[in-house]
């Protein structure tokens, strides 16, 4: 018994020094690894940070050059247009029928956002955007400053919808007399749209330090300090976590959306403007971390080799790895089966989508068929009423009055033909001959057509009409079609009201405006109101084409059809058409 014990004791003594040496070697390896990684991190971080800063400065120079080029290219435009004989002649004669088309022909060549020609009262008489015709700019800075200056004036003005507009303006003179102002809007917003696709944050500041262009919309209108201080609590927490976890970054210049960034400032040689770019340290971190990962991987391999040489558990680990490999192979086979099943499901889904597409086409054909009956419903109802009246008059031996009813039925048949032609024009717009139309007479004709429905529902009609006739240049049949659609929608909207009321107001100014207001429940979705096939009625009561067709008719006549909810309830529809003044009437 004593011999085995004595044989085991030397082996126990030899294991002690061996373990101590192993621990010492591992300690030295760890210290060497930490020193190497720390030194590499400092050197590579400085090198890659400087390289990133140089690239950011090059991008800033490119961005500022693009902005300066755009500003200088548009600066000469007002001086050239202010000498255009055609525009000067239009301002002197008051005939602007060709002025807007002339500006439109220039805008594509110039590359400006828009062009406007203002008369000496500040009213827009010609513009590349025809919706702005008739706008008043008497108090606008670009109009006032242009009248006071003999040179081209640059103006920066905040928009109500957000952002800034940048304009060049110059007064137009004829025989040393100011007759108008030409305004050129510079499209600097396109640079913001181009910057959206880059990783850097960009801001352009004017001479007062206010941000006028930025990739961050919430920065606009603020100073740089105010913009950078607007950090949410979540961003502050995330920033603290990143600052703790990221050990490769240098002290940041600023924080954007909770992330440390490098700030590079530059000057734009234009009215004291400056530009700032904010570049993340992500590229620096990725490059440094890649090298550090390789170093750590090398030290890890050394440590693994040391453990492999000293450990007798390698065989057990290999067996474990083999079992895991077998399990992975089983999982791989299972995944392949699942992939095959998914491919089959995708093929079935594609077939179902084709079937659904065909069903949608058939449904669209059904909706268009229902639209014809929807539009012809009112003339047919009126014809039924007139036929009943004519039958009664004939029984009472009053043929002259019955002939009047037959004439009205003939007019309704003509109207039905015009409606079907208009339904076809919904898909393919055609040209029609326009003539002066009295809006009061068109309204009276529409009310006459809707008289049976109004009496059946006992709708109270309130009309406010001007003393003088309001005349527009258009197609009376199509205008009456729009009015009938608006009245029919107002009647449908007041179905649930005990005392239905419809108020009609006709006014004239720069445009003829006819408003139809009801006391119904109002409009829920104003954005989709004029889209085809959108309707809030029950199935079978409407197809959703009435307002879409009406909007297209008004647009063809050079006007606009809008809708809103009234302050005291109900819906308000406004039809605006160009007024027929003496100049237009003489031209026609």
UniProtKB/TrEMBL annotation:
Q: What is its main location?
A: membrane
UniProt key word Lipid metabolism? no
PROSITE patterns, alphabetized: HIS_KIN
Which cellular compartments is it found in? Answer: Cell inner membrane
Asked if Signal is a keyword of the record, the answer is: no
Membrane topology is: Multi-pass membrane protein
Q: Which residues cross the membrane?
A: 20-38, 290-310
Query: Looking at the UniProt record for this protein, which Gene Ontology cellular component terms does it annotate, in alphabetical order?
Result: plasma membrane
Alphabetical UniProt keywords: ATP-binding, Cell inner membrane, Cell membrane, Coiled coil, Kinase, Membrane, Nucleotide-binding, Phosphoprotein, Transferase, Transmembrane, Transmembrane helix, Two-component regulatory system
Q: What is its EC number?
A: 2.7.13.3
Which reaction(s) does the protein catalyse, per the Swiss-Prot or TrEMBL entry? ATP + protein L-histidine = ADP + protein N-phospho-L-histidine
Q: What class of enzyme is it?
A: transferase
Q: Which InterPro entries does the record associate with it?
A: HATPase_C_sf (IPR036890), HATPase_dom (IPR003594), His_kinase_dom (IPR005467), HisK_dim/P_dom (IPR003661), HisK_dim/P_sf (IPR036097), Sensor-like_sf (IPR029151), Sig_transdc_His_kin-like_C (IPR004358), Sig_transdc_His_kinase_DctB (IPR017055)
GO MF term set: ATP binding; phosphorelay sensor kinase activity
The Histidine kinase domain extends over 371-581
Q: Which domain of life is it from?
A: Bacteria
Q: Name one Pfam family in it.
A: HATPase_c
- Coiled-coil residues: 318-362
Write out the function statement from the record. Member of the two-component regulatory system DctB/DctD involved in the transport of C4-dicarboxylates. DctB functions as a membrane-associated protein kinase that phosphorylates DctD in response to environmental signals.
User: What is the official name of this protein in its record?
Assistant: C4-dicarboxylate transport sensor protein DctB
- Organism listed in the record: Salipiger thiooxidans
């Amino acid at each position: 018994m004593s011999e085995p014990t004595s044989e085991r004791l030397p082996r126990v003594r030899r294991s002690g020094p061996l373990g101590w040496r192993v621990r010492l070697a591992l300690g030295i390896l760890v210290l060497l690894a930490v020193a190497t990684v720390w030194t590499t991190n400092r050197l590579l971080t400085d090198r890659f940070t400087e390289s990133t800063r140089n690239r950011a400065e090059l991008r800033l120079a490119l961005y500022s050059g693009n902005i300066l080029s755009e500003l200088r290219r548009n600066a000469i435009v007002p001086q050239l247009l202010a000498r255009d004989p055609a525009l000067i002649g239009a301002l002197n004669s008051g005939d602007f029928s060709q002025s807007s088309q002339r500006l439109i022909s220039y805008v594509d060549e110039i590359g400006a956002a828009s062009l406007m020609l203002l008369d000496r009262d500040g009213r827009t008489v010609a513009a590349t955007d025809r919706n702005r015709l008739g706008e008043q700019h008497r108090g606008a800075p670009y109009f006032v400053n242009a009248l006071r200056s003999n040179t081209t004036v640059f103006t920066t003005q905040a928009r109500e919808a957000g952002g800034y507009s940048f304009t060049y303006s110059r007064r137009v003179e004829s025989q040393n007399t100011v007759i108008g102002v030409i305004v050129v809007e510079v499209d600097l917003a396109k640079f913001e749209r181009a910057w959206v696709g880059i990783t850097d944050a960009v801001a352009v500041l004017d001479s007062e330090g206010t941000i006028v262009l930025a990739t961050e919309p919430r920065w606009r209108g603020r100073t740089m300090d105010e913009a950078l201080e607007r950090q949410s609590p979540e961003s502050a927490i995330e920033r603290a976590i990143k600052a703790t976890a990221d050990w490769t970054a240098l002290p940041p210049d600023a924080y954007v959306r909770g992330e440390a960034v490098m700030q590079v400032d530059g000057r734009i040689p234009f009215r004291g403007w400056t530009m700032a770019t904010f570049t993340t340290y992500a590229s620096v971190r990725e490059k440094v971390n890649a090298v550090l990962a390789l170093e750590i991987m090398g030290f890890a391999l050394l440590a693994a080799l040391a453990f492999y040489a000293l450990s007798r558990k390698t065989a057990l680990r290999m067996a474990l790895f083999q079992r895991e490999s077998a399990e992975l192979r089983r999982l791989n086979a299972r995944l392949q089966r699942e992939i095959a099943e998914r491919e089959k499901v995708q093929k079935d889904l594609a077939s179902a989508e084709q079937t659904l597409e065909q069903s949608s086409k058939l449904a669209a054909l059904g909706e268009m068929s229902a639209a014809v009956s929807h539009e012809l419903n009112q003339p047919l109802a009126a014809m039924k009423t007139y036929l009943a009246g004519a039958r009664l008059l004939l029984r009472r031996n009053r043929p002259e009055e019955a002939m009047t009813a037959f004439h009205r039925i003939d007019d309704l048949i003509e109207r039905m033909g015009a409606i079907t032609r208009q339904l076809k024009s919904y898909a393919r717009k055609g040209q029609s001959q326009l003539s002066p139309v009295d809006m009061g007479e068109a309204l009276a004709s529409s009310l006459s057509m809707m008289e049976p429905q109004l009496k059946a529902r006992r709708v109270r009609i309130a009309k406010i009409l001007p003393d003088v006739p309001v005349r527009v240049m258009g197609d009376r049949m199509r205008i009456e079609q729009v009015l009938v659609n608006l009245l029919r929608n107002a009647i449908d909207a007041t179905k649930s009201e005990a005392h239905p009321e419809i108020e009609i107001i006709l006014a004239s100014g720069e445009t003829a405006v006819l408003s139809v207001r009801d006391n119904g429940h109002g409009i829920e979705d104003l954005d989709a109101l004029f889209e085809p096939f959108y309707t809030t009625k029950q199935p079978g009561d409407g197809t959703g084409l009435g307002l879409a067709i009406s909007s297209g008719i008004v647009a063809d006549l050079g006007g606009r059809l809008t809708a809103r909810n009234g302050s005291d309830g109900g819906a308000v529809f406004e039809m605006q058409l160009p007024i027929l003044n003496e100049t237009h009437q003489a031209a026609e």
